[in-house]
What does this fold into?
Amino acid sequence: MQHRTPPEGSTESEREEALRTLALVLDHAVDVILRYGADQRVLWASPSLLTTFGYDPADVVGRRFRLAYGEDIAAMSAEFAAMIAEGRSEGLFRCRVQHADGSLRHAEVNVGLIWDSHGQLDSSVAVFRDVTAQVQAEASLAESEARYRLLAENASDVVTQTD
It folds into this structure.
């Protein structure tokens, strides 16, 4: 992820319009965006945190807040540490998220690390996309394929498939 600002030489009006556009995009994004400081405290949370996972952004800003659930927390923490150690700026993960109502969801998480001019971690941005429906569809397909395979492998009749 690169940090982008209006180009130098932009007029004040152009900068204000760029900031208005950015605010509109962030306010209406479906994906959940969390910006963390180097101390892992939330600096900013998108409004979609409430609509997607049931948590009020105002309640998580300023504290250490993890959306990952169960053993996925340790796995993501280990991968995050590896990203830092290797100096990588991006990572893509899947994890489970516990919704505020207690239900479990599945998320794809794109993490971007922001480094300061001295090569130290300044902050990070995590973008969570709810992929629960996709994970459920994948599980249903795998179950259907397993059932078909079991039938085909154990049938005493000859089974053929034609187009």
Observations:
- The mean pLDDT is 85.
